[in-house]
Amino acid sequence: MAGVGVTMEVGNDGVAVITISNPPVNALAIPVIDGLKEKFVEATRREDVKAIVLTGDISILPDVSVDLVVNTIEDGKKPVVAAIEGLALGGGLELTMGCHARIAAPKAQLGLPELSLGVLPGFGGTQRLPRLLGLSKAVEMMLLSKPITSEEGKKLGLIDALVSSEELLRVPNVTDIGLKPRSVKRVAVIGGGLMGSGIATALILGNIYVVLKEVNSEYLLRGIKMVEGNVRGLVARKKLAHDKAEKALSMLKGVLDYSEFRNVDMVIEAVIEKVPLKQTIFSEIEKACPPHCILATNTSTIDLNVVGEKTSSQDRIVGAHFFSPAHVMPLLEIVRTEKTSAQVILDLMAVGKIIKKVPVVVGNCTAFAVNRTFFPYTQGSHLLLNLGVDVFRIDRLISRFGLPMGPFHFAVAMAIFDAILSYCKLLPRIMRLHNFTNNVKCMDQVIMLPGYALSSISELQKKRPNACQLQDLAGYGVALAVGKELKAAFSDRSFRSPLVELLVKSGRNGKNNGKGYYLYEKGSKPKPDPSVLPIIEECRRVTNVMPGGKPISVSDNEIVEMILFPVVNEACRVMDEGVVVRASDLDVASVLGMSFPSYRGGIVFWGDTVGPNYIYTSLKKWSELYGSFYKPSRFLEERATKGIPLSAPASTSPGSRTVTYELELAKRYSGQDDMILPQHQGQADNDLGYRDASGMAVACG
Known about the structure:
NAD, fatty acid metabolism, membrane, peroxisome, lyase
């Protein structure tokens, strides 16, 4: 059978694209089925594969069984989403019903026409269709052999969401006013520390010439070596060809002054979080750069209006908030002020496409969207600890929920981790770790610990630090400084715990001196340190929040909820204030930037899954017991009392759910046409469908 085949390509992003080729209609003939199963099994076993996409306009020959393939998908540990455009008939539809969720483009045709040919649906459709539609409607579909549209399938429950294949993710007043992105060929990066070198690495890998500036030769040499280490590490792990690595490194130039800035198209400032220093830099680069140059800052906490207040070019100032390691993490938070021009936003989105990032445009506020949303994560954990809950129990439960680490690490490496990264002596946390069920080990870890370069990652993959361990590894000093700034901004809903100060006073500096919450001994795994418990008890005496002086009694589920419900509550405030355009922006950002378990769909989607009313009543109860930290936001209260999903637009009626199109964003702005974003089961935010970052996606069309 000429032209028949199933091929698989695995990109540097870890996405395996399985393509069916059986013209003219891609019927699932025997060679196709055999090849499909073979490639699925191979992709499932390969450690470098994080996501799987099956493409092809799939129909079916009535005398061929695909039951084994459907069972392979349905029984696999990696979740699967089917995306349908055009036709899904017979075995093609039965294949999609073996997936965990289905999305479809408008006017797609769905049906089981086998009876019109004198045979029964034989690939599980007789069992799976009634489970989705109910017996009566399922029997009708099979007996009449009449296809239905995807719109009708959505109403019946066969389709989870409808997605227009033409619809693009739009940013109001940016992508809808006829502008075209300008070419950005040369970028200057100020600061060669961990963040600056990572940003420079991402840019040169995207074939963008980089001028890296530092204050002296020693720091400059160190920064260049870090970039080289990043690139060589990719080569060593076979993520990058040697010739491409050499070409990338040839596009890097180190400088000690602004002489090379006269012909750059963009500057990205990545120095420590000090307002006077940043203001001085922006005043200098405004004079040194051409009038069209974009002036970007990688700050994670400082108001952009403050950064640029001493310049006359505030329309060119924008936030380019990378997540470290900048050349690895896929999220780019683009921060716009009231004065930032639409052209600048569009240009930066185009740069995101070139360097394979997923940009989320957010408003200007303290900590912006992602770090601000997760600020209560740390606060809630410390409040629970001071209410008498065991610190190591908190860690275990949060890890079991699916987050790569517990909240005592997040106190340093999440809500304020970018500030930590500004200090060259400190290196960051696990950057990406995906769990699919409580019993499944991680498929991918990217861990950066003090003293280790990215090239050491293969050794670090053997370790899995949890919350307190990672806080130990990061250190506490920066947490004290930056934590005060964030607590000042959100004083009405902050819990002030002296625990970190007490740890520092007691000489516990984490990995740096071998003890923190855990003990670190050479050649052995970190172990919980019982001697830290008296320090925790002292902290509890100082805060004195335990009712009657006795530890509270809470279930495992309540512990997780008391930590994560405040995060949902803050996400509601972020949406209410218009910091993000839509709820799915936070969903995508929470997964890509904060490693929120992607199979739970993102922080807002998870909140809708749990139920706004349940979250609201729980927070209200806890606020009466434990204070204003748990006070429900106005937005949450309104959605809960009116029965409106958290993700629904302000103008949406109760019971509806917004559907957006993040994959189009990925395709348009990441440069990867087949990129699959981590996302949740049962919601489609793109025109191909996406599941877990280490999951499968099946595309029919």
